[in-house]
Amino acid sequence: MSLPATPLNVQWRELSPRKYEDLGSVLLSRMYPESIRTDGSGGDGGKDVHFEDSNGLTIFELKSFTGRVTAGRRTQVRNSFRKAQELKPKTWVVVCPIDLTNEERKWFEKLTADTGIECFWYGKTWLDARMTEFPSVARYFTSDVNNELKELAQLFQREQAALSGGVPDALDRLRALQAKCDELDPFYRIDLATNSDGVSATLTPRYVGAERDRPITMNARLRFPDSASSTEILSGLQDAIDFGRAANVPAEFVQEVSIDAPAGLGGEFGAGILSIGPSEIVAAPQFNLHLILNDAQGTRIGMLPLSGSLKTAGRKGFVGEFRDDSGLINATLRVDFTDKTLEFTFRYEAVPRLPRAMLPALAFLAECESGNLVELQLETGQPLGPPVALIKEPIPRVRDFVRAVELLGRVQEATLSYFNVPDSFTVENLEDLTFADRLLKGEKIEGTWTRFNGKFSGAYAKDILEHLRDSGGIDGGACSLVHVAELTLDFDSHQMPLGWVTTHLPSAKMLDSERTAEVLSEAEPDDEVPVTFEPGNSDATTRWKGVPEGFELGGVSS
């Protein structure tokens, strides 16, 4: 399938100096997307377009001369070069639609010799080649864009023909249409997309500053009645204008909208929903901030690193978004150049994380008490504003939550049982975790008990009966009982094995002792005999992790 041909033969002598400078600036910006354009009106300081990389500064000087490089024009070039020398560039390039004669080239080489600067003259041949390479630049500045749109409309009409090749044929046609649309504008890339709702076109700046060279403007006539909802919507719209944030205006507030956009995408529109997407900063670099916490006297309590980037920009300033490593603390930085103010807000958002991943952020928040001071600094230590006093705590009862997360983290690490922190902890959760943590640290835990239900193994019936007779347990007296078993902590549908745990009951009285002794005397090795004990002279108990030395599992020890 063929596309309508558009002439690329630029008549350089017919371009005004201003149009040539615009064409050349956009061309160089397309070739070097990080380049910076200098407005030459009133003097350009020795450069029109420049960029800097690891090799040094490169300056492009745009001259609209055609014909020959006369004496007057040579003086202009000489003056531009002298201004450029003051900036100490690595490379200086004249871009001019004149291919130098041998004599003119000798003059240029003599002018730039022995300066330590690499100098080049890019003439008409070079420019013509670039126009072929970047046809949208040539077409925009030298052709009638309306004719381009008419040709594109005709192409769309032809694409309504039957698809004899099926889906591959449709894909080929879509790629051709995409390529043709993309040639319409040198400032923005035009991307087509289809879905069940229809076809959409997205404009993306082709280089840094394209939106300034060719701004997209909108005029809207809106009507907001005096109501709380109107105030909220109007505030969001103002935020979109001032800081580039997204905003939506319902149809009942929109009376008329007109848009001036490239490639015929603008126009006049009546009432309808007005949706403004975020004015995102393209390729914004990531950088780090430090959130500093001081007490009321200015003594540092803590520091939490944040990372992020600038996200949107508008008429008054920009907004950056940052977060800590865990993602629990999300922060917004808003800089207003008009009012010369900086607003920084941070908030806690509960997200599923392992305890150790959450603790730095939670511990920091635990110290964010009313009256303490917060300060924002660059990674270099440079403050972005004075310390500000906190007026309220970010999370109620955060210290209790931090303690619970610390306990859970220690128990998880000791038992190698890892799962995310729950949204909340019950009193029973805290008691269980405290008990498990003390056990795993090797502590002996003193406590009390009311009843013990267990089972004796028939394989040890003889030893058990002997112990009970010696201690008087069969006759209703109290005996010393040691119980050893594997213990597992059930927590929020997760199980954490605590290992072998010993329970010592110094004074335990067996209920229904005579009948239990009778059953034990008749028990087979595989039998299990249920038994119940209650406190005797004391209800004290001691528990610890491990098995007593010399203890045989399944037996009884005094």
SSE layout:
Blueprint: H1 17-31, E1 36-37, E2 49-53, E3 56-62, H2 71-85, E4 91-95, H3 102-112, E5 118-122, H4 124-133, H5 135-142, H6 145-158, H7 167-182, E6 188-195, E7 198-205, H8 210-213, E8 217-222, H9 228-243, E9 247-249, E10 254-260, E11 267-269, E12 274-276, E13 287-294, E14 300-313, E15 317-323, E16 329-336, E17 341-348, H10 355-366, E18 373-378, E19 388-389, H11 398-415, H12 427-440, E20 445-448, E21 452-457, H13 461-471, E22 478-491, E23 494-510, H14 513-522, E24 528-535, E25 540-545
Parallel strand pairs: 3-4, 4-5
Antiparallel strand pairs: 1-2, 2-3, 6-7, 8-10, 9-12, 10-11, 13-14, 13-18, 14-15, 15-16, 16-17, 18-19, 20-25, 21-24, 22-23, 23-24, 23-25
